[in-house]
Design goal:
9 helices; 51% helix; Rossmann fold; alpha+beta
Length: 313
């Protein structure tokens, strides 16, 4: 599956689920006689901004559970605490300037934009009255002012574009946020058997078209994550692997548990991206021309090869 198709499909499904919640919230406003017309726009736009942002932030965490915990806690702060704090500052004379600055900056947070719109629709008359007696700090009562809901709408649209581009960039860089500094240098002290050296020389000295599969200096280093923005300690699963397979050959990998057999096959099928080295299928680079290479590959994994509910029908 193409990566853009994968993310587009996930986005459509998640958007449908979140929009149902947003529409229910809007429906409750109308049912209770509290019609926040302008704020409803923020509610409907919120999923567009929040979904790609959540996808990107998930790459920072070592597991789904830690990502969910962070998302829930951060949304609690951004949706409930931050808007209330900004509202207080915008209505407390000594903090007017700080409140306005924070109000603009916080519009880059999707959750803030939702609650900010509700606060404005419900309290804007009082806010305008409070600020009207302070010369130079008057506040527009129009929802379509950049300090008010218009700013929230713009913020949500900017978030959608920014995080969508960030997601594409992350995928282009194989899910790596940040640089590869901290990775151990390739080992040069390994003593290889003669047949291994002969295979390496054979593969390197022959052109790509001579092989159906050509693997050269393949290396995979995992970063054992230990938290947000902390890649953890490196674990080298495959080091300097080189081999070539011609048409009609039957080939197998032998090794103890943890030798890197499964990791090698994951890289051969693009399930994992190699840290360095190259994989070529009929002369095509796996990383650059995967859509063509995948049509030439059949793969039966060790587990979950066939779904239990799959039938010939």
């Amino acid at each position: 599956m193409r990566l853009d198709s994968y993310w587009a499909a996930n986005f459509v499904i998640d958007l449908a689920k979140m929009e149902i919640c947003s529409l229910c919230s809007v429906g409750m406003f109308y049912a209770m006689g509290t019609v926040f017309k302008e704020a409803c726009i923020s509610y409907l736009l919120f999923p567009f901004a929040a979904i790609p942002m959540t996808y990107c932030l998930a790459f920072l965490f070592p597991s789904v559970s830690s990502a969910q915990t962070f998302t829930i806690f951060s949304n609690f702060l951004v949706i409930l605490i931050l808007p209330a704090l900004v509202l207080f500052m915008r209505n407390f004379e000594p903090l007017f300037d700080i409140g306005e600055t924070l109000n603009y900056a916080s519009k880059l947070c999707p959750g803030f934009c939702v609650t900010s719109g509700v606060f404005f629709n419900s309290l804007h008359h009082k806010m305008v009255d409070i600020r009207s007696v302070h010369k130079g700090y008057e506040l527009s009562g129009s929802a379509w002012h950049s300090k008010n809901i218009l700013g929230d709408v713009i913020g949500l649209c900017v978030n959608f574009l920014f995080w969508s581009f960030m997601l594409m960039w992350i995928e282009k860089s194989n899910g790596k946020i940040g640089s590869l500094r901290g990775l151990p240098a390739p080992r040069t002290d390994i003593e290889y058997d003669e047949d291994v050296k002969e295979e390496e020389d054979r593969v390197i000295s022959n052109p790509d078209k001579h092989f159906q599969i050509k693997v050269t200096n393949l290396r995979k280093v995992y970063m054992r994550s230990s938290g947000p923005l902390n890649p953890g300690k490196p674990l080298c699963a495959v080091e300097n692997l080189t081999f070539g397979l011609s048409k009609g050959e039957c080939f197998g990998l032998l090794g103890v548990n943890g030798a890197g057999k499964s990791t090698t096959f994951k890289m051969l099928t693009a399930e994992e991206a190699p840290t360095s080295g190259s994989i070529k299928i009929q002369g095509m680079d796996m990383n650059k021309e995967f859509q063509k290479c995948r049509k030439l590959i059949g793969y039966c994994p060790q587990y979950n090869a066939i779904f239990e509910t799959l039938s010939v029908e």
